[in-house]
Specification:
This protein is α/β, with parallel strands linked by helices. Helix content is 42%, strand content 17%. Helix 3 runs parallel beside helix 5. It is globular.
């Protein structure tokens, strides 16, 4: 799957992944009112609003981007109806040819980890009948329980051509409380990066990158440069651009000399672009067209430093 992702990035000339992390405050009034009128003030109304919102944005941007990254928490909080909206969003995005990065950040061991693996990137076996539930191509994981929390996913990566992005250096302001601790003369994030690189050694594709990738925040420029040198065969998922304050220049070092090696996430900077002054001309009715313009602007900004 890593080779397909890189091919899609090259086809679109755009290392951007759109984070489908809807909030009710982002939903335009006409969608809100329609769903509240049909379903009342219920979680189902919000879930249906999210799905309609996502589909409209996907329709406007799918030809410009390689992938989308739905954050499961936004849907999971709504219960079963939210999870269905998450699944339906993935199904619709895949119908448009997009790669799916499920942002689930799970971390557990043994049968629990195996259950997460089977549900998200593997198959559920019911008396010999196989079912694919969530249909993500990649998922994010927290590796801080060690190899026990990651190994159950390897079979699906190998046999079903799936992929992982493991947290290494995250973009949040206080990530350094743990990730920047010194261990044996290196930072913890470097130590974890070394493990991630090692775990992916036997899953390197034709592109030269492993199916086991790393999450490396754009908000930490120097750390990104260090990790790229340390992990030449590891593909990076880079959050923190735009709304979190990072610029294209900040994350340029996460790419290799050929301009490959990372996919950069933007969530509210794209899906809620119509609320920004720079895109105010589009108005609420044309919220998805504002998202399209935000994708174009981000693509051009990123390519200017690659």
């Amino acid at each position: 799957m890593i080779d397909q992702l890189i091919l899609k990035i090259r086809e679109t000339n755009n290392p951007t992944v759109v984070g489908l992390d809807p909030r009710f405050a982002f939903i335009p009034s006409r969608i809100k009112e329609e769903m509240l009128d049909i379903y009342g003030k219920t979680p189902k109304a919000i879930a249906k609003s999210y799905l309609a919102f996502n589909k409209t944005i996907i329709d406007e941007v799918y030809d410009l981007i390689p992938a989308v990254k739905p954050q499961i928490a936004m849907y999971e909080q709504l219960g079963a109806v939210g999870i269905q909206a998450y699944i339906d969003t993935i199904t619709y995005a895949k119908s448009k040819g997009l790669v799916i990065i499920g942002d689930i950040k799970r971390s557990d061991i043994a049968s629990t980890a195996q259950s997460y693996a089977d549900g998200h990137i593997g198959l559920i076996d019911i008396e010999g009948e196989k079912f694919e539930i969530y249909k993500e191509d990649f998922i994010t994981l927290n590796p801080f329980l060690g190899i026990d929390s990651v190994k159950p996913y390897f079979e699906a990566c190998k046999t079903r051509n799936k992929g992982l992005f493991l947290l290494v250096k995250t973009s949040n302001p206080n990530s350094g409380q743990l990730q920047d601790l010194k261990i044996k003369n290196q930072y913890l994030y470097e130590y974890v990066g070394g493990l991630v690189s090692k775990w992916g050694e036997d899953m390197i594709g034709k592109s030269g990158f492993s199916k086991i990738g790393a999450v490396v925040g754009a908000t930490y420029k120097e750390q990104g440069i260090r990790l790229r040198k340390q992990m030449p065969h590891t593909f990076f998922l880079v959050p923190g651009y735009g709304a979190q304050g990072a610029t294209a220049q900040d994350l340029a070092g996460t790419f290799n000399k050929d301009g490959v090696g990372s996919i950069v996430n933007s969530s509210r900077g794209i899906i809620a672009a119509y609320k920004k002054d720079i895109y105010a001309e589009f108005g609420e009715l044309n919220f998805a067209k504002a998202s399209r313009q935000a994708v174009i602007d981000m693509r051009d900004d990123l390519n200017s430093v690659l």
